[in-house]
Amino acid sequence: MVRSYWLVVALVLGGCGADPGMLEDPADFDSGDTQEQRATSWERLVGAWQAERVGNPYQTIVFQRTVDGTGHHFFGMRQVVCVRAPCNPVREDGSFTAGTSILTLRVSGATQRLRYRLSGERLTILSGETVLSTLSRVRSYCTAAQDCSSQGLPGVRCIGAWGCEENACTYHCGTPRPSCTTLTCAPGYHCEMSDGGGSCVADAGRGYGAMCGGIAALRCDMGFTCVLSARTPDSAGVCHPLSGEGGPCGGGSTRYPAVCGDGLSCDGPSSGAPIGAMGVCRRTGPTCATLRCAPGYRCVMRGAVGACVADGDHGYGAFCGGIAAIQCDAGFTCVLTSRTPDSGGVCHPLSGEGGPCGGGSTRFPAVCGSGLTCEGPASGAPIGAMGTCVRTGPSCATVRCASGYRCVMSATGARCVMN
Predict the structure, then answer these.
(1) Is residue 24 exposed (0-12), middle (13-18) or buried (19+ Cβ within 10 Å)?
(2) d(CA 276, CA 229)
(3) Which of 147, 180, 202 is the last residue of a domain?
(4) What is the spatial distance between Cα 347 and Cα 195, in angstroms, rounded to a whole number?
(5) Strand partners, 239
(6) Stated pTM of the model
(7) How far is CA 348 from CA 93, 115, 319, 415, in A?
(8) The domain containing residue 272 runs over which residues?
(9) CB of 49 within 8 A of CB of 117?
């Protein structure tokens, strides 16, 4: 069994689109091609072809015998550009026709006409006189068992079925086994394709960074979720940690960062946070900018969600603390006048991250919540100018930066920057 590796087909499609249902286009053939050459030249290309070196735009193409419109079917795997690794190739299917020297590829209604030369087991694809790719014939390539029967592979003298294992076609004699599209597994088990059929195996073993999804619909272990690399059918992905409300999420230096569960969104990290800083999963809900409260109630932000609370009698400027331990209304905090036991204080507005704070001419200025500090106002600012609540960050005394980076202090704490 010959195994071929991931295919990369970067089809730069141009020209006019052609309807596969139309009659054959004379432009798909050389003017000197006979009718017999037009009808049979495509058969010479049937099979899998792999590039002889890395970096060619056409790494591998699989030409098949299956009729597709006015030509026959081909497929390959197109490399995609993504922000986060891994960038798994995406399968791209289309139709092809071939004359004695012209190769026409049609994908999603777009058409590209190229020239080709075939010498024994070597295929050279050109655009004009420019060589785009030089490929050698390989035994097979597949992403699913149904890709194998039309590649012109040698026949097998037994009753059985084709299978696809590690992107190579294999034939198994005997009664065909069910596929993962038809096999139902018990809770705690999932279906995996092996030996030409589907089998139910225990879920354990698919945690952080493991492959998931794909044609076998591999499921991640409990506490993880499958982040797919594309929205195409049978697309594969990677298992990422799954966080609940209040759990961590994101993290710029984490290869497979935690993601939030249903109904939650990742809040943060704030701009300028140290490399690798993580956000927090919060319940998705309305904010005070969109929430309307009934008379006698006002909106206050609780985390990332707005809530309606009674106005009460202990809001802005009200007495708080004291021997009765009077608490301020939601959205306010008690600023004590001293640190003595049973000391009283005054209710000041309580600001979250990014909210206002301070203000020289304000009698009871807003103060920042836990883990936040008031940045500003800058020296020389107008009377009454207010600062902003920012997240308290680590200092350069405790932050260790990667090679090629150094630590600098900002308003939000230490951050690693490139040398």
Answers:
(1) middle
(2) 22
(3) 147
(4) 71
(5) 226
(6) 0.41
(7) 64, 77, 10, 32
(8) 248-283
(9) no
